[in-house]
Automatic annotation (TrEMBL):
Record-linked Pfam families: LRR_14 (PF23598), LRR_RPS2 (PF23247), NB-ARC (PF00931)
PANTHER family cross-referenced by the UniProt entry: NB-ARC DOMAIN-CONTAINING PROTEIN-RELATED (PTHR33463), RPP4C3 (PTHR33463:SF198)
Annotated protein name in UniProt: Disease resistance protein
GO molecular function list: ADP binding; ATP binding
InterPro entries per the UniProt record, alphabetical: Apaf_helical, At4g27190-like_LRR, LRR_dom_sf, LRR_R13L4/SHOC2-like, NB-ARC, P-loop_NTPase, Plant_NBS-LRR
Signal peptide (UniProt feature, chain positions): 1-23
Lineage per the UniProt record: Eukaryota, Viridiplantae, Streptophyta, Embryophyta, Tracheophyta
Similarity annotation: Belongs to the disease resistance NB-LRR family.
Residue stretches in coiled coil: 40-67
Domain NB-ARC positions: 174-332
Domain Disease resistance R13L4/SHOC-2-like LRR: 588-696
Record has Kinase as a keyword: no
Keyword terms, alphabetized: ATP-binding, Coiled coil, Leucine-rich repeat, Nucleotide-binding, Plant defense, Repeat, Signal
Length: 1219
């Protein structure tokens, strides 16, 4: 027996070994059978997740395609791969859904079923591997590349000239010259309207798009350049604020800013004569000041280009005939081959336009809708009949054709009034209205309101014909300089004779103003010392004077030969008694003294003699009182006291005598006179039956009489207890009223109110919502409720919703027909409404579809945003809510808010750009469908709850981050994220932060403040993704009050790509941090411009040597460290700081301009090695400015010695040198 055992023992051993070798493969094969259900489920879930990722990418692709961007090939390949995989997975999943209903009793039958399960399970596993592979590749940095730079044009119709060879060749030559180091100044020359400005703008856009320059600045110089205006425009493009008045000081600051840029292109548009660039602060490259600065200028005159010492001049010529014809066809949007009757006349018109794009397009626009051939023949005849001389003849004649196409003399005159203003000036449409009223332009209009409608209609038609351009806002327009010149030329050949002079250098009254035919004068008088005393302008109707020093006086009898004068507009002048000697001007209808100062001799009572006056304006002037004589102006329609902060008295009885007054403006004139006087003055407004426009501010509600009623107001801005912006187009009510105040006087205004700001609630609750038939808010766009007592709301809509102290802003669904109250609401802000529990009713889901901005803060009782009225407690219905236009959502200081709604299953916010949460201690998620569901089972941004790929700003403050830690935000919410801020989030850890930072590839600003668990900001190893750059778009990093932070960057490879666009790094009050940078990090921060480190108690050095391996690498490389763009360095209140760097590196700071060191008592030297600072001229130490005369280390040691010699107890730097 023993022998048998001995004989079998080797066999058993071999068998066991073979079994061990086969165990794992057999186990895997059996795993396909035993894990069949699990494998199928994993595949189904994986495919579903992949489909969601595919949908997210598709949204980004669709958005990119809408912006004409080019989709990256790897993105398209990934999407195709997902589609192919989906087909394969569907086959596996479909086969797995077919059940075997009958077992075969034979062994073969059972074996056949097992084989099918094995096969499907194995395919599921293999397919799932591919799913995981595609899911891993899903994290794209971006899905598209930007399109070619879009052409920038003065007029939209210039885009029709794109691709013409005559323009392409010049543009190519200019672009090549910009890349030639020997060329500093380039001129673009050509006659007016040929397209010089368009060419310059297109070159600027392309140069910037091709990264030839870091910054491109374009400034409109104009025929009469104003140096301060030009400097301000340059500074605005550079993000530089100029508050100084001295031209030389402003120039020095601009020069320093431009020199700080490595490559900059300054485009000076419309040069007429030599412009001293040094006086403006523009450094030329040819003199060695700044070789990276190039100048591109445009001018109608080649001599002006030569005066500017242009190295190369390119002339833009008229379009050749074939290009001019094609441009005309494109603009007129018709093919003349299909309309032979107009073909020849159209050809003749194009020929007469002389190849000038402006003339071609102007005529084409004017004739675009004309079908009658006689209109075309007439246009051609007009072009041929004018005999204007000079190179601008064809331009002026073609523009006059457009002018003659205007439908009425009124519109023509409004256009000519625009020409009275300076070049490139924002022209107020209200100014055009008042000038027109003063000149009696508007026929068959009943009152100021109708004239305003007519003016806006004229302006829109003039813009449609490209005679006017959009201004800086909706209340203003602009005029192209060539169109303005043409208009003045047209005026001079008609019954209107305009003399217009604006800009620097006008020291004397123009000689041409002695012309007896002159009808309008518009002058800037800043440098004039006197006005003529024998001015003979008997036909003058409009006088517009701007500026003037304190010595400029109106001579006695200045107005004596101006009997036809109807409009006087004086701005920024000193008004004396002679300025108002208007006895002869009996036809005066508009007197506007704006931004003026009145001396003691000025007597406003003289104005009372101007009995035909219809408009009187003292906008932003220091008028002290309105005398009773103003009440004699019985024809006055407009009284404008906007911004008259010094006004302390309006004579009692004055206003009620202005029986034809239609508009009264007092915004910025805070009425806070003695109560009885103010109440009397305001009560007089009740007697003005024609008053249709009122802007008024009252300091307190007691000044408003209880029986005051706003009757016929169509335009209004009523502010009680608040001040408001002076430039607002919308009808505005801003009311701070007690709860007991009755709203009867305001009810009539609510139907037309566009901006409503309420402080106090019973007013709205009892008088408005309870009677929606008499008061609705169909015009309301902006609603703000502040400190409102919600407990007074008892009736809200039709059907008399009775419930005591419901504390809700809501609109109950009526049993009868119901009309939404807030269908046009764009902005809603609710502040400190302590009893408010909810905002919106789910019974009126369409009431807020246009809402764009929602801010709720300080509402202590609010529990949810949406509430379903008459909720069934046993069975709750769930609904989907979409706010399709919501762009900004801010929820702050809401201690009871748990979510958006208990009844909302899906909240869709497709346009959300900004999302801010602060101090919401009970906030679980955006929805709270199931009150019993654990908060761990849903995330803050469940994709079913918040559907957005547009989010740009995410700010979370004073919030518990556990939800985010357990269920991180989906990538779809981070596709467009640019700003991320976390403040006072005590449970935000470094792990959670790293996961969050992996998602937003386009992040530009990161702000962390008062987050006590953050120890490391950037764990590089976790942020590395397939070799892609790490946060390469991040430009601003702000770290403040992070008590446990020990590292900003850590746990990464010695070399990696990332943070290459970081320009500003700020670290404050991080007391465990001992250093900021490592050499490996410093070398990649090539764009860093500002570094600020303040109040870090344990900070010993700013730059610390890294690992031993990194130190060896540094030794093998150069010992130099370069901060190529760092301009500003602040080291403040760092008690342990010894130096910037203690290692023997040589530092190069080519751009460093400012060093500020304050309260760094342990700092001995700047660096252990040398420091090259070619641009550093001064250093600030403890608030004192010191000129740099030596290298930085030596300078610090010398300053330390000086401080020691002066008062050793106050020394900041100890006199010791590192050997």
């Amino acid at each position: 027996m023993i022998g048998l055992v001995a004989l079998l023992d080797p066999l058993v051993t071999v068998t066991l070994k073979i079994g061990g070798w086969l165990a794992d493969p057999i186990k895997n094969q059996y795993g396909y059978l035993f894990n069949y259900t699990t494998n199928i489920k994993k595949l189904r879930d994986g495919v579903e997740d992949l489909e969601n990722s595919r949908a997210s990418v598709q949204q980004s692709v669709d958005a990119a395609l809408r912006n004409l961007q080019v989709i990256k090939p790897d993105v398209l390949a990934w999407m195709n791969g997902v589609d192919e995989l989906k087909k394969e997975a569907d086959e596996v999943l479909q086969a797995s859904s077919v059940r075997v209903h009958k077992w075969l009793w034979c062994f073969g039958g059972r074996f056949h079923d097992i084989k099918s399960r094995y096969s499907r399970s194995r395919k599921a596993v293999k397919t799932m591997e591919y799913v995981l592979e595609l899911q891993e590749k899903y994290k794209f940095n971006k899905v598209s590349d930007p399109p070619m730079p879009v052409e920038i044009t003065d007029y939209i119709y210039f885009s029709n000239s794109e691709g013409f060879e005559s323009r392409v060749s010049v543009r190519t030559d200019i672009m090549e010259s910009l890349q030639d180091d020997a060329i500093c100044v380039i001129g673009v020359c050509g006659m007016g309207g040929v397209g010089k400005t368009t060419m310059a703008k297109e070159v600027g856009v392309r140069a910037k798009g091709e990264h030839l320059f870091d910054v491109v600045v374009m400034v409109d110089v104009t025929q009469t350049p104003n140096k301060k205006t030009i400097q301000s425009s340059i500074a605005e493009h550079l993000g530089l604020k100029l508050q100084e008045e001295s031209l030389s000081v402003r120039a020095a600051r601009i020069s320093a800013r431009l020199k700080a840029l490595t490559r900059v292109l300054v485009i000076l548009d419309d040069i007429w004569t030599r412009l001293d660039l040094e006086e403006l602060g523009v450094p030329l490259g040819s003199d060695g000041q700044h070789h990276g600065c190039k100048i591109l200028l445009t001018s109608r005159s080649i001599s002006a280009c030569n005066q500017m010492k242009a190295d190369k001049i390119f002339k833009i010529r008229e379009m050749p005939e074939n290009e001019a014809w094609l441009l005309f066809e494109r603009t007129a949007e018709r093919s003349f081959h299909r309309d032979p009757s107009l073909h020849q006349v159209a050809r003749d018109i194009v020929e007469k336009c002389g190849g000038l794009p402006l003339a071609i397009v102007t005529i084409a626009r004017a004739l675009e809708s004309e079908k009658d051939k006689s209109m075309w023949d007439d246009a051609l005849q007009r072009l041929r009949s004018y005999n204007l001389e000079g190179e601008y003849a064809s331009v002026y004649s073609s523009l006059e054709v457009t002018y003659n196409f205007l439908e009425s003399d009124e519109m023509k005159h409004v256009f000519l009034l625009c020409c009275l203003f300076p070049e490139s000036h924002d022209i107020s449409i209200e100014d055009l209205l008042r000038l027109g009223l003063g000149l009696s332009l508007f026929k068959k209009t009943d009152g100021v309101s109708e004239a305003r409608i007519r003016t806006h209609a004229f302006v829109q038609k003039l813009k449609n014909l490209n005679l006017l351009l959009d201004g800086g806002d909706e209340l203003s327009v602009k005029l192209h300089d060539l169109v303005r010149d043409s208009g003045l030329n047209i005026a001079s050949t008609n019954k209107h004779v305009f003399v217009v002079k604006h800009g620097d250098g006008l020291q004397f009254w123009p000689s041409e103003l002695t012309d007896e035919c002159c009808t309008s004068i518009s002058l800037r008088c800043d440098e004039m010392s006197e006005l003529p005393d024998n001015l003979n302008c008997p036909k003058l109707e409009l006088l517009h004077l701007v500026g003037g020093n304190q010595s400029l006086e109106f001579p006695t009898g200045f107005y004596d030969v101006m009997a036809e004068l109807k409009v006087i507009l004086l701005r920024g002048m000193l008004i004396r008694s002679t300025s108002l000697s208007l006895e002869v001007s009996i036809k005066l209808r508009n007197l506007s003294l704006e931004y003026c100062t009145f001396d003691k001799t000025s007597d406003l009572s003289m104005i009372g003699n101007l009995v035909k006056l219809e408009i009187l304006s003292f906008v932003h002037s220091d008028v002290k009182e309105l005398p009773i004589e103003i009440g004699n102006l019985s024809q006055l329609k407009v009284l404008d006291l906007t911004g008259c902060g010094d006004l302390f008295n309006i004579a009692p009885g004055l206003l009620q005598r202005l029986i034809h007054l239609e508009e009264l403006y007092m915004t910025g004139t805070l009425v806070s006179w003695p109560d009885e006087q103010t109440t009397t003055c305001i009560r007089e407004l009740n007697s003005l039956s024609l008053l249709t426009a009122l802007e008024i501010e009252l300091s307190v509600y007691d000044l408003l009489p209880h029986d005051f009623i706003f009757r016929r107001l169509k335009r209004f801005k009523v502010c009680i207890g608040f001040s408001t912006e002076s430039k607002m187009a919308q009808n505005t009510l801003t009311l701070r009223l007690p709860a007991s105040w009755e709203a009867d006087g305001f009810e009539i205004l609510f139907n037309r109110t566009e901006i409503l700001h309420l402080h106090g609630w019973r007013l709205l609750a009892n008088s408005i919502l309870s009677n929606p038939e008499s008061s609705n808010f169909l015009m309301l766009r902006n609603l703000k409720l502040e400190s409102c007592d919600m407990c007074h709301l008892t009736e809200i809509c039709h059907g008399q919703y009775h419930e005591t102290a419901v504390g809700e802003i809501t609109i109950d669904e009526p049993e009868t027909s119901w009309k939404p109250l807030f269908r046009n609401l764009h902005d809603l802000e609710i502040v400190r409404c302590v009893n408010l529990r909810s905002i919106f009713s789910l019974n009126a889901p369409t009431d807020f579809l246009k809402l764009e901005n929602l801010k709720i803060t300080g509402c202590e009782m609010m529990e949810e945003i949406f509430l379903k009225k008459k909720r069934d407690q046993d069975e709750r219905s769930v609904v989907e809510i979409e706010l399709p236009n919501l762009k900004c959502l801010i929820l702050e200081d809401l201690p009871r808010l748990t979510g958006f709604s208990k009844d909302v299953s899906s909240l869709v916010l497709p346009q959300l750009l900004e999302f801010r949460l602060r101090n919401l201690p009970k906030f679980q998620a955006l929805n709270i469908v199931d009150e019993n569901r654990s908060s761990a089972n849903h995330s803050l941004f469940d994709q079913k709850i918040l559907a957005t790929t547009q989010l740009k700003v995410l700010s979370i403050s004073k919030m518990k981050m556990k939800e985010i830690q357990k269920h991180l935000l989906p990538v779809s919410c981070f596709v467009s994220l640019r700003v991320m801020s976390f403040c006072k989030c005590d449970d935000l850890s470094s792990v959670v932060l790293s996961d969050l930072l992996r998602k937003p590839k386009g992040l530009k600003l990161l702000h962390l403040e008062d987050c006590h668990l953050v120890e490391i900001v950037f764990e590089i190893q976790k942020l590395l993704t397939e070799g892609l750059p790490v946060l390469n778009n991040l430009s601003d990093l702000e770290l403040e009050s992070l008590p446990k932070m020990t590292h900003i960057w850590k746990h990464g490879p010695e070399t990696f790509v990332g943070f290459q666009n970081l320009t500003k790094l700020s670290v404050a009050s991080c007391h465990q941090l001992t250093y900021v940078l490592l050499p490996s990090i410093a070398t990649i921060l090539a764009h860093l411009q500002e570094l600020s480190v303040t109040e870090c108690q344990r900070m010993t050095v700013i730059l610390k040597e890294g690992s031993q391996h990194e130190a060896i690498q540094a030794t093998n490389r150069s010992d130099q460290l370069v901060f190529p763009r760092l301009k500003s360095l602040e080291l403040i209140d760092l008690p342990s700081l010894r130096c910037f760097c203690s290692e023997l590196h040589d530092f190069i700071w080519p751009s460093l301009e400012t060093v500020w060191i304050d309260c760094c008592k342990e700092m001995m030297i700047f660096t252990a090695g040398t420091s090259s600072t070619p641009k550093l001229r001064e250093i600030w130490i403890n608030g004192t400015n010191h000129t740099i005369e030596r290298d930085l280390n030596t300078e610090l040691q010398w300053l330390q010695q000086q401080l020691n010699d002066g008062d050793s107890s106050d020394s900041t730097f100890r006199s010791s040198v590192i050997e």
